[in-house]
Specification:
Layout lengths: L1 H17 L1 H20 L6 H6 L4 H26 L4 H5 L3 H23 L3 H5 L3 H21 L1 H6 L9 H8 L3 H25 L5 H36 L18
C-alpha cells in the first residue's frame, strides 16, 4: 500500500506542475474565503471567530469551495489513469465530461442541502438528541456508501459508462478497508495542516495571518488532489483484483511507468 500512497502525493505534485491553472482553482477559492473571513474580523480573536463562523458570505464561499475541490478531480483522475500523459488528460472527451457533470451536480446538490437545507430534526420533528443520533447515523451510512461508490466516481471521468453505481459496489466489495486506509492517508495529513494553519492564524499579527492563510490555501489545493488520488488508487486496486478495467474498452491502456 505504501507505493500507492507515495503515488497519491507524488502525483499531486506532478499534476500541480503540469497543470498549474487547474491546481489553482480550489486554491484561489479558498483564499477568497480567507479574504472574506479577514474582512469580517474572524482572525482577531477566538471569540470573534466563533461569532462570525456562520457569516452568510463565509458560508457562500464555503459552498463555492466544496465545488472547487471537486473540479480538478476530473483532470487529475485522468492524469493518473493515463500515466501522467497530459495530452490524453486534456483531450476533449464529451462523454467523460458529461458523466462527470452528472456526478458534479449530484455531489454539489447534496453539499448544498447539507449547508443550507432545513435541519433533519425540523423535517422529522425530532428533539435535539434524537436528531443528533440520526444525523450521525446518516453520516456514517453516507461514508460507507461513498466507499462502495468509489469505482463509479473514478470510472465516469474516464468515460467508462459500464461501471455505474451498482457495479461499483460489486467491484469495491472486499476492498472496503483498503479504501478506507487510502482515504485516511489522503485526507488526514493535509486536513490536519489545514486546521493547524487556520486556527493558528487567530490572534496573530496581520502580516503573519496573510502568510499562514496563503499557505493554507495551497494546502487545500493539494488536499483536493490527494482526496481524488485516494479514490483513484482504491478503485484501481479493487478493479485489478476483480479483473475489471476502469477505462472504456476503446481506450488504449497506458504503459505503467507513472509513479
Amino acid at each position: 500500500m505504501w507505493p500507492s500512497i507515495k503515488q497519491m502525493y507524488g502525483g499531486a505534485v506532478r499534476f500541480a506542475r503540469a497543470a498549474p491553472l487547474l491546481f489553482l482553482v480550489p486554491v484561489l477559492v479558498e483564499f477568497a474565503q480567507h479574504v472574506a473571513e479577514i474582512q469580517s474580523g474572524m482572525y482577531v480573536s477566538r471569540d470573534v471567530a466563533r461569532a462570525v463562523a456562520n457569516d452568510p458570505v463565509r458560508m457562500a464561499f464555503g459552498f463555492a469551495k466544496t465545488l472547487a475541490l471537486l473540479l480538478p478531480g476530473y483532470w487529475f483522475v485522468r492524469f493518473l489513469a493515463f500515466d501522467g500523459d497530459t495530452r490524453r488528460m486534456l483531450a476533449f472527451d464529451a462523454r467523460a465530461l458529461g458523466l462527470f457533470a452528472i456526478q458534479f451536480v449530484l455531489v454539489g446538490s447534496v453539499q448544498y442541502l447539507m449547508l443550507f437545507g432545513p435541519s433533519l430534526g425540523a423535517l422529522l420533528g425530532l428533539d435535539a438528541r434524537s436528531a443528533s443520533f440520526v444525523t450521525a447515523a446518516l453520516a456514517v451510512a453516507q461514508s460507507v456508501l461513498g466507499i462502495y461508490l468509489t469505482a463509479w466516481f473514478v470510472a465516469w471521468p474516464l468515460g467508462n459508462t459500464s461501471l455505474g453505481p451498482l457495479r461499483s459496489c460489486v467491484v469495491m466489495a472486499g476492498s472496503f478497508w483498503r479504501a478506507v486506509v487510502y482515504l485516511l492517508a489522503g485526507v488526514i495529513p493535509l486536513m490536519a495542516l489545514h486546521y493547524a494553519l487556520g486556527l493558528g492564524a487567530i490572534g496573530r499579527a496581520p502580516a503573519l495571518v496573510w502568510v499562514m492563510l496563503a499557505l493554507d490555501a495551497i494546502a487545500v489545493g493539494f488536499l483536493a488532489l490527494t482526496m481524488s488520488a485516494a479514490k483513484y488508487v482504491a478503485a484501481r486496486d479493487a478493479a485489478r483484483r476483480k479483473q475489471v478495467s476502469l477505462l472504456p474498452d476503446h481506450e488504449p491502456q497506458p504503459v505503467p511507468s507513472f509513479q
